[in-house]
Amino acid sequence: MFKEQRDQKLDRFCFLAMGICFSARIKADTPPHTGVNSHYVSSDGNDMSLDGSKISSTSVPRTEGEILQSSNLKSFSFSDLKIATRNFRPDSVLGGGGFGSVFKGWIDENSFTAAKPGTGMIIAVKKLHQESYQGHREWLAEVNYLGQFSHPNLVKLIGYCLEDDYRLLVYEFMPRGSLENHLFRRGSYFQPLSWSLRLKVALGAAKGLAFLHSAEAKVIYRDFKTSNILLDANYNAKLSDFGLAKDGPTGDKSHVSTRVMGTYGYAAPEYLATGHLTAKSDVYSYGVVLLEMLSGRRAIDKNRPQGEHKLVEWSRPYLTNKRKVYRIIDNRLEGQYTMDVAQKVAILASRCISLEPKLRPKMEEIVKELEQLQDSSNMDNNHFKTRNGSRTRRRSAGDAGNKIANAAYPRPSASPPHSK
């Protein structure tokens, strides 16, 4: 949801072939197109699917006033959020980015009024810099989409504050922080995610994207990456940061034409080259994240040896080669998976990052395949445990004893809901 402070220092990357220079996060001057397409309205005026997803049936909003009126969110006063976050104290900061900071706070579960620290419900409050116009547009986009969508794999936006020049967003608190931290940070709190948890997170994130791409929502997420995948106490994945989300094409249109926005290393090549945005652009980004989970490597890492800086380019030759696929698998996962399942995950990632968008699978297909792979992996693990008894292996997140309550949580580097 928010860029890491570290990300602000990244070098700018130039695509000379296109005559365009992008920063680590690609920005644009035009505001995102805001609005929601709704179908299949139930008797109570809302869309509801069997998976617990929900979409408001209000008319497609366009102006700021219409968006705020049509949202299903709590309107907070600035004074309430000031009290809830202990006056936005520095030691309450959970993360920060180019146009604001995120603070930990507490509110009453019923009245949503400010509560004493340690009581009531924990929240994450994003406070925008008052002079940030780009931040305001993304703030409005988040209210627009998360104010009307409800799904188990989307982070919950509880409310907002629009008072004078203040712009704030109030989210559910995600105690496990971002997937990025668990994959790439080192320390006593961030144990390497186990193979089974990586499959669980991959599936949850896929379900979130599949919902956005569904006929009910028709939204292109546009900024799918590890720092925007947040984890609750049980490692359930939820997508956050809808500031760059955009309505998908309608009618007989095949794509949406936009200024290029997103994050270098995750954006689909055809989108970078043409500005044509489709759901398959998100699928490419998903494939990059799946590679990161499989390999334990970042999408872009200049600290790697020459030829290994870009994960997609480096891994592509190995993904469909049964004899070489092991070279890209995170060595911290040794003994936790079967090569058969690992190869299928690698092949799935390869399909997602295909240079030809039409060859990439739909997110609903990815969900079905991952569900099958998860079931197969669980069966293999049970067979392995039965045959090998209590054979020990390297400790990973998800092992017994990896408790959250007593773990020291370093200052997080990405978006909201991070534990502290």
Notes on the structure:
- The protein is α+β, with helices and mostly antiparallel strands.
- The protein has ten helices and 20 strands.
- It has two domains: about 30-170, Phosphorylase Kinase, domain 1 (2-Layer Sandwich), CATH 3.30.200; about 175-390, Transferase(Phosphotransferase) domain 1 (Transferase(Phosphotransferase), domain 1).
- α7 runs antiparallel to α9 and α9 packs antiparallel against α10.
- The chain is globular and about 60 Å long.
CATH class term of the largest domain: Mainly Alpha
Number of helices: 10
Query: So what's the oligomer here?
Result: single chain
CA gyration radius, whole angstroms: 21 Å
* Helix/sheet category: alpha+beta
Task: Tell me the major beta sheet.
Answer: 6 strands, mixed
Please tell me what the overall shape is. Answer: globular
Q: Can you give keywords for this protein?
A:
single chain; 420 residues; alpha+beta; Phosphorylase Kinase, domain 1; Transferase(Phosphotransferase), domain 1; 6-stranded mixed beta sheet; 3-stranded antiparallel beta sheet; 20 strands; disordered N terminus; disordered C terminus; non-specific serine/threonine protein kinase; ATP-binding; Prot_kinase_dom; Ser-Thr/Tyr_kinase_cat_dom; membrane
List the helices and strands and how they pair.
Layout: E1 13-15, E2 20-22, E3 25-26, E4 46-48, E5 54-56, H1 64-70, E6 74-75, H2 78-84, E7 93-97, E8 100-107, E9 121-128, H3 133-146, E10 149-150, E11 157-163, E12 166-172, E13 177-178, H4 179-184, H5 195-213, E14 219-220, E15 229-231, E16 237-239, E17 246-247, E18 256-257, E19 262-263, H6 269-274, E20 276-277, H7 279-295, H8 311-319, H9 339-352, H10 363-388
